[in-house]
Write a structure and sequence with these properties.
Rossmann fold; Quinone Oxidoreductase, Chain A, domain 1; alpha/beta; 2 domains; 24% strand
């Protein structure tokens, strides 16, 4: 099979490798689409696994079951169209039992096994046993999972922040996650959504995601503008949906007294954010982190897409062959596309590759 292997920062090679082995209770997925996530771009262009290359990333994968291990006892069968979650909580540890399953103490880490940037990928038995493989509706394209997976985290974040009809929500960053945050905030009834972004190109057209006011932070002081828009108080809820330490610093000044801030976007490893804790102290701010979500957040994300209340095509603005992943990364970083879905069974010209 063909796959994209990372050998170092931005050293990506489209190579032929052996077909994967199927665990006794696992599966082999014929990957039909895999989303290019912001975290993938960060990993592929940096050095996240020094001394442990080559590695195959990709965690937003959907496709067709090719093979099932002999010990599998469920109802799925070869040929079924499915989505496959990259990691799954155990459901039994102290955090899972406390309702914090996205902070499971027994996560099965996908960083050290093959991901979905390949024509076939093994789905471990532990993922199958933890309800990590679900059928995709017949009328839903494989590309949709590239939105369901990140929306899972967004829904978890909004539930914890309790975004509701009284809120002015400030979203920092107009990338795919920022756009998903805006749409979900509006679905939850947010009174007003303000979006800030340093890229003028990324701000074009964000109104369709429910953004009421957009601020080009490359041309205006976003702190002054947010305070002006909110009568000097600041936003009720602030979501930093970008990998920026500066955004995290400025969020403290753009939140209202008693407001809630989510550091949603992960920043590069080793980079520290300097925080004026006096602002937190005297404004009574709550700062929270977010990664993933619980089972309810996952079900909500799937329902929003499968029901059509959230059109995944607003986020997936292009599809490309997997072999052109470097070009796809460049397009996303330049803001030319919101999010790209990669197709492992297409050649560089977009023609179907026969199995």
């Amino acid at each position: 099979m063909k796959a994209i292997l990372q050998y170092g920062p931005s050293d990506l090679r489209y190579e032929k490798i052996p077909y994967p082995e199927c665990e006794p209770g696992g599966m082999i997925l014929k990957v039909m689409a895999v989303g290019l996530c912001g975290s993938d771009i960060r990993n592929l262009t940096s050095d996240p696994l020094p001394g442990k290359y080559p590695h195959i990333w990709g965690h937003e994968h959907a496709g067709i079951i090719k093979e099932i291990g002999p010990e599998y006892k469920g109802d799925l069968k070869p040929g079924d169209r499915v989505i496959s979650w990259a990691v799954r909580p155990c459901g039994q540890c102290a955090e899972c039992r406390a309702g914090n399953s996205n902070y499971c103490l027994n996560w099965n880490e996908y960083t050290f096994r093959q991901g979905g940037f390949a024509q076939y990928m093994p789905i471990p038995q532990v993922i199958v046993e933890r309800d990590g493989v679900r059928k995709l509706p017949d009328d839903m394209p494989f590309d949709a999972f590239g939105v369901i997976e990140p929306m899972f985290s967004v829904c978890g974040c909004h539930e914890r922040m309790n975004i509701n009809f009284r809120d002015t929500v400030l979203i920092c960053g107009a990338g795919p996650l920022g756009c998903i945050h805006s749409r979900v905030a509006k679905i939850r009834g947010a009174k007003r959504v303000i979006m800030t972004e340093i890229s003028s190109a990324r701000l074009e057209g964000v109104e369709k995601f429910g953004v009421d006011v957009k601020i080009d932070a490359s041309k205006t002081d976003q702190i002054e503008e947010v305070l002006k828009l909110t009568g000097g108080r600041g936003a009720d809820k602030v979501i930093c949906a970008n990998p920026s330490t500066l955004s995290q610093q400025q969020a403290l000044k753009m939140a209202k007294p008693g407001g809630i801030i989510s550091f949603f976007g992960g920043v590069p490893k080793g980079v520290m954010t300097e925080i004026d804790s006096n602002i937190i102290h005297y404004k009574g701010l709550t700062i929270m982190g977010q990664t993933g979500g619980d089972a309810l957040a996952q079900d909500t994300a799937e329902d929003l897409i499968f029901s059509g209340r959230f059109d995944y095509r607003d986020i997936i603005t292009a599809t490309m062959p997997l072999c052109r992943i470097s070009e796809a990364i460049a397009k996303c970083k330049a803001g030319e596309e919101i999010k790209i879905s990669l197709h492992p069974w297409e050649d560089e010209n977009g023609n179907e590759i026969k199995e």
